[in-house]
Amino acid sequence: MLEKDDFARCIFHDLWEQCLDKLGDGVGIKFPVKIHITLGWSPKCSAVQGGILVNPPRMPLEKLTIDFVRQPFSILNA
Fold first, then answer.
1. Do 71 and 33 meet the contact criterion of CB atoms below 8 Å apart?
2. Domain extent at residue 21
3. d(C-alpha 31, C-alpha 40), whole Å
4. What angle do CA 17, 66, 58 make, to 5 degrees?
């Protein structure tokens, strides 16, 4: 579980946690957010090398899943 302050080292603009339209209505992120890291492997595939079908080595992959709640946000209510 991460709070907004945990993202201070990231290079985001000042209002990164909200998205508004021209009328000032939109959504904001409700903190804390939940981040889950999954380690896995790239899919198996085949390639042609020197006229022979070979299986190149698989690469390790790191996947981040971010779960967050979007809440309605308006400049009239801010």
1. no
2. 4-74
3. 28
4. 135
What per-residue string of b and e applies to 30-50 under the rule 16 or more CB within 10 Å gives b? eeebeeeeeeeeeeeeeeeee
Q: Give pTM, 2 decimals.
A: 0.58
Tokens for 21, please give them: 């339209």
Instruction: Report the alpha-carbon distance of residue 53 to residue 26 in Å, rounded.
Output: 52
Tally of domains within the chain: 1
**The amino acid at 60:** P
Q: What is the pLDDT of residues 12-66, one digit of tens each?
A: 998 899 999 998 899 999 999 999 999 999 999 999 999 999 999 999 999 999 9
CA 63 → CA 41, 42, 74, 78, distances in Å? 10, 11, 33, 34
Contact between 13 and 65 (Cβ < 8 Å): no
